Structures are given as structure tokens and as C-alpha cells.
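Give me C-alpha cells for this 127-residue protein.
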Amino acid sequence: MIKLLLHSWLFSSPSLAGVSQQQSGLSQMLQFLKKKYRELKMKFRTLKLFQRRRSARRRNKTDRWVRYIVILCFLTLMILPLLANCSYRMVPHETKVEYGTVDTDSKNDKLQQKKSVTQTWRWKRHD
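Here you go.
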């Protein structure tokens, strides 16, 4: 349709008055096309912006999942050696019980009873 109008305006009147009319019609059409181009360009920029935002959200979601997986693997690697060592247990090795008397530094020269228990532990493998 636009091509037909352009063609009819260009070739319909051979007079000079027609040339100025054709130029004004062409300049109006050029302004219209420039306006449409600007609108389309703005729509394209907006669309690109929305696409970038959407891809950033997707990237954030995947980054979160990757982070969770890495943390889970790290914790698993930290806990596995502890679980492997569960085949050991703590058992008492030596137990010492001491009874005795100790002189006090008081003026009465009294003796004080002393009682103590000392115990050492060792790791032993489960059977």
C-alpha cells in the first residue's frame, strides 16, 4: 500500500508544483517512518532489558543451587572421616586414687585430709 502511494506520488504529476507536493508528502512519510523507527527501537531496548533481567534471575537461581550443592559436598567430605573414626571408642586406661594428709599453714598445726582421683583414657578399636 505504501509503495503504491509512493509510486503514485512520484510519477503522477510532471509539473513543478507537483514536485513540491511530492517532497512534502515524502518528508511527512519520512517523519512518520522515523517516529515509528524510534518507537520500535525503544520497544526493542525494553525487550532486551527484560530479557537481561530474566536471564539474571535464572542465573541467580542456578547460582543458589550450585552453592547448595557445593556446601552439601563440603559437609559430606567433612563428616565422612568422622564417621569412619566411629569404629573407635574411648576406654579408661589407668585410674589412680590417692589418699593422704597435708599440713596446713594455719597456727593450729592441723592436718588436712587429701583425696584425689586421676584417670587417663585411650582410644580402642571396636571389635
